[in-house]
Amino acid sequence: MIDHFPESSLLISKEDLIPYSFDATATFYHAPLAVLFPSSIEDILWVLKWAKSNHACILPRGSGTSLSGAAVPQKNSIVLSMTKWNKILETDPDNLTLLVEPGITTQVVQEEAAKYSLFYPPDPGSYKISTIGGNVGHNSGGIRGLKYGVTRNYVLGMEVVLPNGQVVWLGNKCVKDSAGYSLKDLFIGSEGTLGIVTKVLLRLIPKPQERQVILASFPTLEAASEATSAIIKAALIPSALEFLDQKTIECIEAYSPAGFPKESQAVLLIESDGHPQAVRDEITRINQVLKQYGPLEIKIAEDPKQQEQLWSARKVAFSALARKAPTVLLEDVTVPRSSLVQMIRKIQQISKTYAVEIAVYAHMGDGNLHPVFLGDESNKDLMEKVFRAMKEIFLYAIKLGGTITGEHGVGLAKKEFLAYQYKSEEFQLLKSIKKILDPENLLNPGKIFD
Amino acid sequence: MDPAVIQKCIHCGMCLPSCPTYQETKIERNSPRGRISLMRAIAEKRMDLTASFAHELYFCLGCLACQTACPVGVDYKTLFEASRQDIEKSKILNNPLRLLARTFLIKYLFLSSWRLRTFGRLLRIYQRMGLDRFFKSLPFLPAKLKDMLGQLPSIAPHFSYEIISTREIPINTPARWKVGLLTGCVQDLVFSKINRDTADVLLYNGCEVICPPEQGCCGSLHAHNGELETAERLAKKLLAAFPIEELDAIITNSAGCGSHLKHFSDLFPPGTFWRQKAEVWDKKVYDIHEWLIKIGFSPPQAFPCTSQSHTVITYHDACHLCHGQKIKNEPRAILRSLPCIQFIELEEADHCCGSAGIYNILQPEMAHKLLNKKVEKIKKTNASVVCTANPGCLLFIEKGLKKHHLNIQTIHPISLLAQYYRMKERDGGSIEKKEANLAGLIH
User: Fold this and answer.
1) pLDDT tens, residue by residue, B32-49
2) Which of B14, B16, B33 sits opposite A316 (nearest CB)?
3) Which of A258, A337, A375, B1 is deepest in the core (most CB within 10 A)?
4) Are B334 and B425 in a shared domain?
5) Which residues form the domain of B262?
6) Does B86 share its domain with B107?
7) How many alpha carbons lie under 13 Å from residue A340 in its C-beta half-sphere?
8) Which of B150, B179, B195 finishes a domain?
9) Which pTM value belongs to this model?
């Protein structure tokens, strides 16, 4: 392999490999065998063949900001870094589509759409650096899932290199397509275990004309959760409905003061967008609902600058929480929105029972919670408790009809719990798809399930 | 190295978009979290301190943009300086030429103001005699050497102590504050005018200025290049040169120095005499822009100007001002207060220009990539003046603009402010000016 690729595209030294031995998940580390920056499809086909005959495996990787260990190499992994494949191939304003390479960042896609007064809604916290390839691999969500959905809702098609060396194009520019199984959907959220995505065709929508942001603070976590369930029950669907507890607010404000009230136990950050009149109407109705749940204060962001400040601050929540503890573990259990209060109560109770500090922020409107466990890798006892607390939260979410992961994927971190969520025949169905597409386990083995 | 500082990094990747080297190469080891992962591997004895690691740490600009981007608050500056110190102690990069250059520059030249000024005088004579043009015209000299000769900045006609008295008092207004003025090393040799301007601006705003003639380098260059012990010696010199207790503030006008000057106490062990002195010092060091905003500076008086006479200016954030000291708004507020000026924000104003101390000499390829990017962004603003508050940036950006044949001036914001104050004085004012004529800089 060393003879086949130039030095600039194949990294093999220890100093080069250690920085590829992790993603943004705590506690998982393993250095790869090599890191390859492919310059063509042929390179990818070549390395697939090489891996097959040398008992190695391949890990397609974007910026390595995944939160489930999906981008952590395993034994004999060759990292296929797609970060240099970052071009926009075609913007088609006539069809509202965008064809991109997988290494392009989410932010650049959003900016390109904005140039045409269009909008690409998926908005993960790491949008400044996360890649579209990575977003597709994890079916990433973010703060606008409630009204606009997640990555899956914006992928029209893709080019994929299959483990057997075939290059296929799945999907098209059509709004409707009933031609057989929706194969592209198999690859969305597959965490790089089924194929290597080399092009992505994205769907864009018109940019909302107006947006307003409400910041409401509450004396208890329950009150904020009840208010959220009530907003959904009133069939109000704002573009974002976020929840932050006091610990999270404190850390965010320590990083970059954005005006979150530090003294309240929980805040809701709500955004309404669309036609100006519809926005005004929605804001009024949301306000009415909020007022029934005893808010301490309701504020409306004064201008786009203040809105931006609040959202930027919100997006760094996870990293900012690392100020609290040496090791932070972020989970993303998701429950039906009518069960939010129960789930929040359970998290508080589990935190007490195990004496483990848990901060919570959430895409509350999606029912997607981010409990953050404050641990310390060097303290085995504490980590043991953290994992027990985590397991109990997963099991409770499943009991409520929820899922162990709303947007981060299973990766390494949650594969132990996947079997709890699926019945055995469902679990077998999941595994059989991997077997059909990648019988030799060449692509990112050991992720999602063993 | 302190493992607790390394472990703060949770490798979330939020630093990646801010890092100039990662953005160019897209290779993880060229990123902050990549470099920290290597430091961690060394601290945990999973890897030796290798030459490759050493080169990586010298490939880092030390611009600290990652520190601004980091939501966790990882102290990259400390990790970076400590790593470079370990590298120098290990001698792993030593070769005769590097040793000679480092010994001459860091351990000899920049160690005393006398040596620096003697060097400056020689260089000045050499430049006045036109020898630099002569050498550059010699066909047999290698292009690389010619380029290096071309990079030598013009030595100013006077050093700071020749144009700033040890003590100066405001004439028109009573002195409300007593401040020390740091004259720096490169600033003293090349930009003594900026020091004079700073003194004038301080006087105009009611500050008595104390400016010891023998100050020397503050040691930021040394701390940045793994010579923390030398940095400590230089810090002691400065601490002894100023009557710290008597002063309300100690003012610096150079971003790179300020970022180091505010943390002198880190150089000394707790409880020692020097540490105590440094702690008082650290609290009193202000960047000039920060100080002016704090005391409520007087904006220059408006004068009539036609719309045609509006000069378009823009501002480049020196890394060690915006990332090192978190000073972003203050210089902008000062520039926006100037009459007859249209202030245009520079895109990516807080991205490093590539100068980064002696980085542009050590890593010319990466430095010039960043410089070209910077020049492109400046061009886009249509500005005729670029302001920035660090001698290194001023020199490097000026070089870039010249290379692209752009008629755009570079100036320190404080020099521009001083110019405005003097414009008003021309109509019958009387503030003390030793070097009044900076004429033609903006019109």
Assistant:
1) 999 999 999 999 999 999
2) B14
3) A375
4) yes
5) 160-295
6) no
7) 29
8) B150
9) 0.93
